[in-house]
From TrEMBL:
<dbReference type="GO" id="GO:0005737">
    <property type="term" value="C:cytoplasm"/>
</dbReference>
<comment type="similarity">
    <text>Belongs to the calycin superfamily. Lipocalin family.</text>
</comment>
<dbReference type="InterPro" id="IPR047202">
    <property type="entry name" value="Lipocalin_Blc-like_dom"/>
</dbReference>
<dbReference type="InterPro" id="IPR022271">
    <property type="entry name" value="Lipocalin_ApoD"/>
</dbReference>
<dbReference type="GO" id="GO:0000302">
    <property type="term" value="P:response to reactive oxygen species"/>
</dbReference>
<dbReference type="InterPro" id="IPR000566">
    <property type="entry name" value="Lipocln_cytosolic_FA-bd_dom"/>
</dbReference>
<dbReference type="InterPro" id="IPR012674">
    <property type="entry name" value="Calycin"/>
</dbReference>
<dbReference type="InterPro" id="IPR002446">
    <property type="entry name" value="Lipocalin_bac"/>
</dbReference>
<protein>
    <recommendedName>
        <fullName>Lipocalin/cytosolic fatty-acid binding domain-containing protein</fullName>
    </recommendedName>
</protein>
<dbReference type="GO" id="GO:0006629">
    <property type="term" value="P:lipid metabolic process"/>
</dbReference>
<feature type="domain" description="Lipocalin/cytosolic fatty-acid binding">
    <location>
        <begin position="12"/>
        <end position="158"/>
    </location>
</feature>
<dbReference type="Pfam" id="PF08212">
    <property type="entry name" value="Lipocalin_2"/>
</dbReference>
<dbReference type="InterPro" id="IPR022272">
    <property type="entry name" value="Lipocalin_CS"/>
</dbReference>
<feature type="region of interest" description="Disordered">
    <location>
        <begin position="151"/>
        <end position="174"/>
    </location>
</feature>
Length: 185
């Protein structure tokens, strides 16, 4: 049986969407370390309309990060369907990897969001704070379920209080987290 088409948000104000978002939960990905915590993304709108993406996570006390670019998949569409391009490995960026970033739900205050993509292999629950009340979390999980996601794969992200500010902690300058994550560690 074919899955229904996903409902993607329309009319998202990209300027309001910019800033820091904390990962509350996600489907585990080979691109992130299994023991990653304090995972967050910071989006900055560029003059050309593209978005600078900085994804960070802390693993074994070190800050791992990767930078990329997001852009509208179809500039003429009002749907919040973006493409995100990263170059890997982060320590020697030579191979472009492009993925879908679809805003499936965004509250009116731009406080929490549900992000997915068409294959339903990746899912993120994001929030402007590093915590989200259980009722709102459950509503986002239910929305994901309605969109055809197997929500049993969702894993909550561990955060410290207070969260790291700026670029605290030693950097993983060798990209060890990326290599480990590719090996399933």
């Amino acid at each position: 049986m074919a899955k229904k088409a996903m409902e993607v948000m329309k009319g998202v104000d990209l300027k309001r969407y910019m800033g820091r978002w904390y990962e509350i939960a996600s489907f585990p990905s080979r691109f992130q370390p299994k023991n990653g915590m304090n995972t967050r993304a910071t989006y900055t709108l560029r003059d050309d309309g593209t978005v600078h993406v900085l994804n960070e996570t802390w693993s074994d006390g070190k800050r791992g990060f990767i930078e990329g670019t997001a852009y509208k998949a179809d500039p003429s569409s009002d749907e919040a369907k973006l493409k995100v391009k990263f170059y890997v490995p982060p320590f020697l960026p030579i191979i472009p990897v492009v993925g879908d970033y679809w805003v499936l739900y965004l509250d009116g205050d731009y406080h929490h969001a549900l992000i997915g993509q068409p294959t339903r292999n990746y899912l993120w629950i994001l929030c402007r704070e590093n915590h989200l009340d259980e009722e709102t979390y459950n509503q986002l999980v239910e929305k994901a379920k309605e969109e055809g996601y197997d929500v049993s794969k969702l894993k909550k992200t561990q955060h410290t209080n207070p969260p790291p500010e700026g670029e605290e902690g030693p950097k993983d300058t060798k990209g060890v987290w990326w290599i480990k994550s590719m090996l399933g560690k």
